[in-house]
TrEMBL record:
Transmembrane segments: none annotated. InterPro entries: NAD(P)-bd_dom_sf (IPR036291), Sc_DH/Rdtase_CS (IPR020904), SDR_fam (IPR002347), SDR_subfam_1 (IPR023985). It comes from Mycolicibacterium anyangense. Keywords: NAD, Oxidoreductase. This is 3-ketoacyl-ACP reductase. GO terms for molecular function: oxidoreductase activity, acting on the CH-OH group of donors, NAD or NADP as acceptor. Belongs to the short-chain dehydrogenases/reductases (SDR) family. It comes from the Bacteria.
Amino acid sequence: MGTLDGKVAFISGGARGQGRTHALRLARDGADIITFDICEQIDSAPYPLATEDDLAETVRQVESLGRKIVARKADVRDQIAVEKAFQEGLAEFGRVDIVLANAGIMPIVGPTSTRVSAWHDSIDVMLTGVVYTLEAAVPTLVEQNEGGSIVITSSVAGLKGTARSLRTNTYGLLGYTAAKHGVIGLMRSYANALSGSNIRVNTIHPTGANTQMVVNDAFLGSAEQFPELFESMSNALPVQLIEPEDVSNAIAWLVSDEARYVTGAVFPVDAGASVR
C-alpha cells in the first residue's frame, strides 16, 4: 500500500528531468498523474528543451508502474492551455490532491542570455507560469474540501544572489534569480490564503541537478569562460551535482501526510550551497 494511494498529482514540465522523476516517484507511491510540457524550443534557452517523444516516454514509464497518466503538450506561459490540460486530467480522474509547479528553463549563459527576451522568458515560465499552474488547480482543491499539498520548484538561486561579476549578471541570470526569489513570495501568499482549507504550500530549492537543464554543452561549456559563476553555485558537501531523485524524494515527503503540518516552508535540497 502506497503513501499516496488514491491521490492525483498535477505536474508542470513533466516530459523529462525533475518533472519526470517527480511523476515517477509519486506514481510509485500510488498517485495518478496529470502533466504537461511545452515540447518546443524557447529561443532564450541555449540547450534543447523536451520533445513530444520525451513526454511520451514519461507516459510509458508511469504506466509501467501500473498508474494512470494524462499528459498534454501545453506551454506554461499560456493560461488557457494550462487550464485545458488540467481540466482534461480532472475529467479523467475526478480530483486533484497535489500540485507541483516544476516547469523551468535556465537561459543564464550564452549569447541569448544577454538579450532582454531572456529576462521575459524567465519571468513568464518560472513566475507567471507558476501562478497559471496553481490557479488552474486551486479552485478544485478548495472545492473538494479535503486539503492538499502544493510544492513550487525554486532553486538555490532563490536563496542567494548567484552573479559574481557584471559579465555574468545577464538578463537571463537576472530573470532566473528574480523568478526563483519571487516564487517564495507567491508560496507565502498562497500558504496564508489556503491554510483555512488545509492546503499546504511550500517551495523546494535544489542545487544543480543531473538533468539536461544543467548537463548540456552550453552550460558546462561556459565553465572556463565564467569560473566565478560556477564558484557562486558550488556546494558545501563533496558533490558537484545532486540527482533529480534527491529532489523527488524530498517532494514525496512534503506532499505526504508525514508533513501534514509543514506549510510556508523554504525547503533546500542543495548540498549546502545556500550557506556558502
